[in-house]
């Protein structure tokens, strides 16, 4: 007879802590009470798209974290994770039958916002939902590396071809084959063909690069990689990009100045959220309570937790079957209470 699988109380608490950290990483860096509209085009924030108010075929729109709670409670929302330089659209002209409850004086449109297919629930170059039941990939296997921090899709790499030069030297290995370019000793180095430093619209050649330009130095090494598939980057890779005046101008012309900003990364945003959450939290009341329980009482808590976990898993399968990836805790608790009506809802 197989031995019954047991879960320690430490395992339970560690799993709960991991879930809280994941939520804090995305949400704690944004204000859950006040609309972000008065802040203008926020550097980075958690965003949602409401398919109830702006369905497919209409104009795309995004709402901040606070508005997703206060103005769109109970609606079908697409989680957009975080986006940069965005101003909350809630209640503007795109929402014909909804007025923002948190900030009334808003312009009809936010002209500097950028939209994509994400606002209608499809993602990536394959235009698939997330989570994707067909498990589509990015044209390349995801490398198994603890260094992995950021990803740039093949389309964006091709639109900014200078990134392929950096990828041959800075990206996480294993995602694509790297090859050494063979140079012809009979051809002067300045006549050798290399990657364009930037897209043609910038109209600057390699020879115009400043002395000591790191990008030019990498190009002259001649090491390349296959121009195919998404590219994965390790932590601190941005700090190794060239920041000479010429490269700064080129990045600005391409709208990529944020690549030189270490605080722009998702990791920096997440760390800010975690730090803010830890500052707000005091001592863990659960840990304090457990210190006063004996062994038998702790085991009873573990068994109760496991029973609830099994029932909740069955319940959540309903959401997976309907393709929903976003819901409110209050709605979840109420539906769960109806699903298993011998429980009382703790948050209603």
From TrEMBL:
Region (Disordered) residue spans: 179-209
Any one GO cellular component localisation term in the record: cytoplasm
UniProt-listed InterPro entries: UBR7 (IPR040204), UBR7-like_UBR-box (IPR047506), Znf_UBR (IPR003126)
PROSITE patterns: ZF_UBR
SMART domains membership: ZnF_UBR1
Zinc finger UBR-type: from-to: 33-105
Protein name as annotated: Ubiquitin protein ligase E3 component n-recognin 7
Domain (UBR-type): residue spans on this chain: 33-105
A GO MF term: ubiquitin protein ligase activity
Coiled-coil segments on the chain, per record: none
Keywords linked to the UniProt accession: Metal-binding, Zinc, Zinc-finger
Origin species: Sander lucioperca (Pike-perch)
């Amino acid at each position: 007879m197989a031995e019954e699988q047991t879960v320690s109380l430490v395992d339970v608490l560690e799993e709960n802590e991991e879930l809280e950290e994941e939520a804090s990483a995305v949400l704690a860096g944004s204000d859950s009470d006040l609309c972000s509209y008065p802040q203008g085009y926020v550097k980075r924030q958690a965003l949602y798209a409401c398919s109830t108010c702006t369905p497919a075929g209409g104009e795309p729109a995004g709402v901040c974290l606070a508005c997703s709670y206060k103005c769109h409670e109970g609606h079908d929302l697409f989680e957009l994770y975080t986006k940069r330089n965005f101003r909350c659209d809630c209640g503007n002209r795109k929402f014909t039958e909804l007025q923002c409850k948190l900030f009334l004086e808003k312009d009809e449109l936010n002209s500097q916002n950028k939209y994509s297919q994400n606002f209608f629930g499809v993602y990536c170059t394959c235009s698939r939902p997330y989570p994707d039941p067909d498990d589509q990939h990015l044209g390349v296997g995801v490398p198994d590396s603890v260094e992995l921090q950021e990803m740039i899709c093949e389309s964006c790499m091709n639109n900014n071809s200078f990134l392929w030069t950096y990828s041959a030297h800075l990206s996480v290995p294993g995602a694509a084959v790297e090859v050494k370019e063979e140079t012809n000793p009979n051809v002067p180095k300045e006549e050798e063909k290399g990657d364009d430093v930037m897209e043609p619209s910038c109209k600057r050649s390699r020879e115009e690069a400043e002395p000591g330009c790191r990008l030019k130095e990498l190009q002259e090494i001649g090491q390349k990689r296959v121009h195919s598939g998404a590219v994965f980057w390790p932590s601190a890779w941005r700090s190794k990009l060239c920041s000479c005046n010429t490269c700064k101008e080129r990045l600005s012309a391409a709208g990529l100045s944020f690549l030189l900003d270490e605080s722009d990364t998702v990791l920096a945003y997440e760390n800010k959220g975690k730090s803010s959450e830890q500052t707000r939290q005091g001592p863990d009341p659960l840990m304090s309570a457990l210190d006063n329980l004996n062994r038998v009482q702790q085991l009873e808590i573990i068994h109760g937790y496991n029973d609830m976990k099994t029932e909740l898993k069955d319940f959540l399968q309903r959401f997976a079957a309907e393709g929903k990836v976003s819901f409110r805790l209050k709605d979840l608790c109420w539906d769960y209470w109806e699903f298993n009506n011998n429980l009382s809802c703790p948050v209603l």
